[in-house]
Design goal:
Length: 230
Amino acid sequence: MASPAGFWRRYAAWSLDALAPLALSVPLLWGTGQRMLAQTDLHLSRFQLRLFELADVALGQGRDPLQALPGWANDPALRAALVDLAGTWLDAALVAVAVLFALSAAWWVAFEASPWQATPGKRLFGLRVERGDGGRPGPGRVALRFVAGVPSWCLLHLGHAMAGWRADHRALHDLLSDTRVVLAPCAPAAMPRGARLWLWAQAVALLAAFATVATFYAVLALEALATGLP
């Protein structure tokens, strides 16, 4: 029986494959994104305009707008603008999730049900999907395997992480669909150099993003201190 694939090798393959649905979703979601930005700008403008109106009223009454701010929480116009803004973002998010889910399903199911028994990422890194008894999975089982991954996403990837501590390296969706990810015939037992480089590239990008955000907030804090703000 083929050797089970380790967690990081599986993750390297998955994260490489994920680039394809993401890239394909860009033209499909472009219009949705443009509408979301336009509606967001409209709702924020309404919110800002109402804040200015309430501030003018407070100043006209001789009150400090900052002290009057807590009482504005129940203002119908402000609340309507926020509700509309949240609705715009929710609608866009639902469309994005639906498109990405459909594209991802087509990508993973089509390739893993093919004679390859693997997506391009898995094939590149020497992996394939098989039934629990070692046979080739059919389209129905592969589709079930893909859908069975949804609970793991809802559980903040806890189901995916199971592949890291189980002796057979099976994740929750492998168990639910009675499948497993194994090393392909003639694949090296050690992680391929390309997979290691890909994982390191992601780690460097993540650290760079964290450093950028941390630097941004550090600069803001220094500017606040320089201007004498508490």
